[in-house]
Specification:
Length: 159
């Protein structure tokens, strides 16, 4: 026989076919495992319910207590009334905030009346003089700009 008609065997190349698989799977271990899991969960839930009913709500358990708050004030309502009266007095009277710097306070109603008399200009920003920072300061340029087309001298040459 010639070599061309001889069948090629896969095991010669290293791809031999393995033994045949079993036609069916043994289902009994899988079903038993599932059954044991279901039984375990049911027993655990039943045990937790019994534990909750017997141990947690037993008559020996002390009821929850609420503790009184700390007594920081003897008369909290009176303290609040005095605080509000003091704040109202400060809002309704003239007085010094900082006498050394000439800062005073005025009643709120008087301040509102003065603002309403000034009209729309009461809300305008105050005029401020334009300030040009000196050269070399943080707000200004370090040196004047050279004219276009020239090279600026190095700082060592300027000195």
């Amino acid at each position: 026989m010639s070599d061309a008609s001889a069948p090629v065997r896969d095991d010669a190349v290293g791809h031999a076919e393995g033994p045949p698989e079993a036609p069916d799977i043994n289902v009994a271990p899988v079903l038993l495992t599932g059954l044991f899991i279901v039984i375990f969960v049911a027993v655990t839930l039943a045990a937790l319910r019994v534990y909750r009913d017997v141990v947690i709500t037993s008559p020996d358990t002390e009821p929850a207590r609420t503790f009184p708050g700390p007594a920081l004030q003897r008369d909290p309502e009176g303290d609040l009334a005095r605080l509000l009266a003091d704040q109202r007095r400060r809002l309704d009277t003239y007085g010094w905030v900082d006498q050394a710097h000439g800062i005073a306070r005025m009643p709120v109603t008087e301040a509102m009346r003065r603002l309403s008399q000034r009209g729309a200009e009461a809300y305008a920003a105050p005029l401020q003089p334009e300030r040009i920072p000196p050269l070399g300061s943080r707000g200004g340029a370090a040196s004047p700009l050279p004219p276009p087309g020239t090279v600026a001298p190095s700082p060592k040459e300027v000195r």
